[in-house]
Predict the structure.
Amino acid sequence: MNNLIILPIIFPFIIGAILIIFSKKHKLQRVISGVASILMLILTIYLAIIVFQDGIIVLEASNWPAPFGIVLVADMFATLMLLLTAIISTACLFFAFKTITPKREKFYFYAFYYFLLVGVNGAFLTGDIFNLFVFFEVLLLSSYGLIVHGGTKYQLRESFKYVIINVFTSALFVVAISWLYSVTGTLNMAHISERVAEMEQTGVINIIAMMLFIVFATKGALFPLYFWLPKSYFGPPAAIAALFGGLLTKVGIYAIIRVFTLIFYHDVEYSHKMIISIAAGFTMLLGVLGAVSQFDFKRILSYHIISQVGYMVMGLGIFTPLAVAGAIFYIAHHMVVKTALFLFEGAAKRVTGLSDLRQMGGLLKTHPWLAWLFFITAISLAGIPPFSGFFSKFPIILAGFQEEQYILAGVALLVGLLTLFSMMKIFGFAFWGKQKHTEEQANINIRKLLVPVAPLVLLTIVLGFAAEPVFQYSLQVAEQIMDPQIYIDSVLKE
Amino acid sequence: MRNSKPNNMMIQTAMRFITIIVFAFSFYLFFAGHNAPGGGFIGGLMTASAILVLYLAFDRKKMNKAIPIDFTVVIGIGLLFAVGTGIASMLFDYPFLTHFFDYFHFPFFGEVELTTALTFDLGVYLVVVGAAMSIILVIAGDDQ
């Protein structure tokens, strides 16, 4: 049943619309959104299994045949991303129940939340590049709503920059798309891929490719366009910051991987091995240096998003099945772990009331569960075995050495070390040492906050111990996306 | 009898009349859509402007009593209409958003083309009315 793959888009859409209608009843909103997110989780698991077994599913919306109408394409990569999105959005939502005040809930928090998911899921599923832009806009508009949600002074100031940079890149996105359309005469990604293959990727096509790269790199926070991220993610409450940190930049990365495996894969020496690899190296290094220099829980985590994004793009830059599989595994690992870390930050803030590490300390003694769960997640992020961080970095770096990209692989290793350093800095300052919060604060019970995060921690452990099957799956995903003919054939049915 | 706002009578009487014309034209535009210029978006905007001139002529309190609708709810209903059209085609095993149309003969109107796109357009119409009105009313109520 092809219509199945529209469900991840329209289901949150319907829920969002219903939530607008019931915006003043916050109890009802919680019930609706909670149940809906569980249903989303089940749906995406089912979709992932179906696509894994039966191959790519294509839906021609409105019954217009491809390449004239808009197609939705669910391949293994897209369904994996849908599943990850559902997992972390569920975790963040249940965390939000405990942390977002009813006053904020009344201002369409859950409606924005679900429209954000509409945009994200749509961006993963669409097979039409203009439609990709549309879903990016849906996602961004909702994210504007969420990032200023609550309307503190800091949020208003920083989200203004967030809005400006995104509006600018969206404009650039349209320019790039229209240029691509004028050259290839089509908007269907499979069809574009075919035409680009006929024309050979030179001159103007390369320029369009780089424009699209710049657009997605800004959304995905790559060097040198990541400057907007740390400050704007600092403002919103933990549940939103966690969702953004886990999800939004990865949509940009998804788009980069999609476009540079499906369409612009003919000039690998230039686009992948040079531009993308250099961007990846600098992103990793500068991101982690930013994290090392910070003394704030949330800011460190925000800078880590940047450095981690570098690994994913590095996998694409090396462009062997092993490296791309590593990148996909890394995305899975990162989305889970990063969300968990941001939520731990929210829990720690609930206790201490601050996020400045120098004024925190001794959480280990008063809140051992928080401390040890954080510890597991932190060393997983840094890439210590047996957690998922190690097994996802390993193939990327291994592929780097195989392809004789010694500098890039060396940088990746160094970045791993610095990540460990800055994570231990958080642990050392906030959890070890003398207790700096009051006795009253020490008695705050945050068990309930840890419940939605614990499954994520469990997942990073499982991804680590079950690395073999997960990696095999990633490898299959990588092989599927690195053979564009599979995608083209299933869309254009030739 | 002292009236603090002597101008209001003129504008209120005129607006009652004008609003009907604007409303009628907005419905015409709404139904003209699909094959001719018009449609849900432009019809919705025109309706919003018709409601807005009423808000101009009378004050907000009176209008809120006359139209006791929360316009943000209208957005939600409109979205459901739009997506509902898509889902309806799914129920008959067609791809999402597949549209159907046929010609019907009505007394007085003659032959009319009825499309399922109309319900989608109705959704758009409601969303536009709701969004335009809530934006304007929120900004207008900002100083209170």
